[in-house]
Amino acid sequence: MRIYLLIVSCLVAFVVARAPPPFVEPLMDYHETVGIPLATRIKEAEDAIMMGADNVVNDVRIVGGAVAPVNAHPYLAGLLITFVNSPGTSACGSSLISANRLVTAGHCWYHSLQASQFVVVLGSQYLFYGGTRIATSTVFVHPQYSPSALVNDIAVIYLPTNVYFSPSIRPVSLPSSNQLWDSFTGAWAVAAGYGKTNDQQVGVSVSSIVSHVNLQVITVQQCQAVFGSWATSGNICTNGAGGVGICGGDSGGPLVINRNGQNILVGISSFVANAGCELGYPSAFTRVTSFYNFITQHM
């Protein structure tokens, strides 16, 4: 009997050890649940900073990351978003890829709420103050974008005028032709954005400035083990071990790899686990190489 129980116990332990991770759904209804509340908090934080308030919470924005040095990510642009027939302002990130083009997530333009205008904020650590600010309503979302499944989650933003390059405003490179088939698995990348810093953040933060974090790229299969069919070959995912990654409000922002001193855009922040940002789940980005033709058609 003891031998039998030992065998059964070993089998149970083996099954538990081999059991797949629990399925996790991405965060949905971005603008209502994340973007609009986040923009409100950032505005309050920046107003307090500009007025010299001394009671602002000291925090950073990307989970597990740090405040980015000035001009560390001159290609990162903030988006202030207004909507068709709906009040409120939402927030996203984007990446400058030429003097008059940027890329962002499709769900920043439409995800239960339809955007009417982006105000693109370049060359500033803040969303509501400083920098170069250009309004545009010319946004091309991928024709097969699905807001319910978050597939083909990419859009190209057209600016009505060219921006002047400077140390704080400069485009990021797209992958070269010989990198289009690179999975980048195992590579270290940097994500930057304006998102909230933790799952409990409700107050204002002194670092309503840009934050960034180093993340390691994992395989699509590792991502699918957590997100199931939500993760596809059109995604590039990063390891969340240690509670690091993107969080609500980082949507549309860049995932960049440095190769031989050149910053290369490999991902666009797409989704995180609905369960929370700090639980060690992967972060999912739109894979730029999968949409290279779509992007270059709009250059």
TrEMBL record:
**Native source organism of the sequence:** Parnassius mnemosyne (clouded apollo)
The highest taxon in the source lineage is: Eukaryota
Q: What does this protein do?
A: Fibrinolytic activity; shows preferential cleavage of Arg-Gly bonds in all three fibrinogen chains. Contact with the caterpillars causes severe bleeding, due the anticoagulant effect of the protein.
Output the GO biological process annotations, alphabetical, semicolon-separated. proteolysis
* Keywords, ordered alphabetically: Disulfide bond, Fibrinolytic toxin, Hemostasis impairing toxin, Hydrolase, Protease, Serine protease, Signal, Toxin
Localized where? Secreted, Extracellular space
Q: What are this entry's molecular-function GO terms?
A: serine-type endopeptidase activity; toxin activity
Record-given protein name: Peptidase S1 domain-containing protein
Q: Which GO terms describe its cellular component?
A: extracellular region
Check the UniProt entry and state the signal peptide residues, or none.
Answer: 1-17
Lineage, uppermost ranks? Eukaryota, Metazoa, Ecdysozoa, Arthropoda, Hexapoda
Instruction: Supply the SUPFAM superfamilies for this chain.
Output: Trypsin-like serine proteases
Name all Peptidase S1 domain ranges: 62-299
